[in-house]
């Protein structure tokens, strides 16, 4: 256990770090997951509203332009997604160990990394926007629009990255409500600013599609500024003020951890993205009706997978705090309750979608379209795969809370590239187009089997976040080196570098 830390008054009111190592697990986990789920829904609805303004009023070329530019943005966010998850896990373990000095140290180094990475990407990406879009074979008629939109997205990336990072770290500290509220602010601003900047209403200039990209940047910048101001006003334990500026100096040990643990988690997103592109290519080969049906089904799948993703993220943060506190009994209970909530929420949502899919699919497909019957058929086969996907996502979230990231990456690679893609491609001669649809539940079952086996018998509980004796040289604050209980290794700053050591609020 870390040494005792002098306690100052807790952060004013609600919204500070929450101790998830005490209290009933099931209601705490559910309360923690619901704001994350709400945030996922908000982001999807925001994308749909923006698509309405762009596609419905600027035309198909503009919608194609935003689709191409958003694919690039998704890959850029995915590239640092794992780094953010690694920072979240480190902060959660520190909070669970009641070592807020270490949590703030991780916060400072991670913020510097994210800020620097975002500025470099923006500076390099803006002048290369057109070249990137040409390399992606963006249709010629959409290229000028896509370039104007993408340049604005690159301008927005520093605010997007930092807002996403701060929100993720707050969730690691046990606070899912605050990130949701400020995400709600960002989405509301984006929805309002989109038509104002696209069409030039009132004092706003008419910018066309570039206005949509600028709206994204401005809304995230304002939400980030409001979130930082709130953290400072509330004297939040993770807020790093002028007196603690040295915490922003990058520490090599923490940077090594962020990269070594974060890159494999980011690679998982890349594997999923590339495999989905492969599946889309196979679907496209069967004609427009099948491709349209698949596109409509994907709209539903986006929402069906949200409960599992929210529960998995909540389980990861909650388990990481309990790992930091060495409460392995609670880690096991978090996993069991997470799987149970996944079956309950995802299963109920799948049942509702299947019961009402004719009406829902009709929102995306013309009445009487051949694609409607195809979409109904493929949903009947593939939709249930998200129930198994949810189990894998929850267990993987618990496993990676210790820093074990390589085996989950291998399992995902086998499920996607060793099972799903070969089945979808190789069995079409026997099953026809149904081979593609059946590849989803079969690969999901394979992932569940492998993930469950690793959870039950694997060595993830002995995974290391720090090697014994690893340190940066000028430090004197000891933190746990390994969740399995090896001797502690110092990674953070001296006590004089950290002005406050606030108390934790109960869950």
**Main sheet specs:** 2 strands, parallel
User: Uncertain segments of ≥5 residues (pLDDT<50)?
Assistant: 1-14, 466-491, 493-507
Q: What general outline do the C-alpha atoms trace? A: globular
Number of domain modules? 2
The first-to-last residue Cα distance is 20 Å
Give the fraction of residues assigned to helices. over 70%
How do the strands line up in the largest sheet?
1-4
How much of the sequence lies in strands comes to under 5%
Protein name: MATE family efflux transporter
Subcellular location: Cell inner membrane
GO molecular function, one term: antiporter activity
InterPro entries: MATE_fam, MdtK-like, Membrane_Transporter-Flippase
Describe this structure in words.
The chain is 72% helix and 2% strand. It has helices spanning 25-58, 60-96, 100-135, 143-172, 177-199, 209-233, 252-284, 288-304, 306-324, 328-361, 370-382, 385-399, 406-426, 428-431, 434-457, and strands spanning 18-19, 478-479, 489-490, 505-506. The protein has a two-stranded parallel ribbon. It is built from 15 helices and four strands. The model is unreliable at 1-14, 466-491 and 493-507 (pLDDT under 50). It starts with 17 loop residues before the first strand and ends with a strand. The chain is globular, with a radius of gyration of 23 Å. The chain folds into two domains: 16-250, no CATH class; 263-457, no CATH class. By secondary structure, it is mainly alpha-helical. InterPro entries: MATE_fam, MdtK-like, Membrane_Transporter-Flippase. Its main location: membrane. The chain crosses the membrane at residues 72-93, 105-128, 148-170, 182-201, 207-231, 270-294, 300-322, 334-356, 376-398, 405-423, 435-455. It is found in: Cell inner membrane. One of its GO terms (cellular component) is plasma membrane.
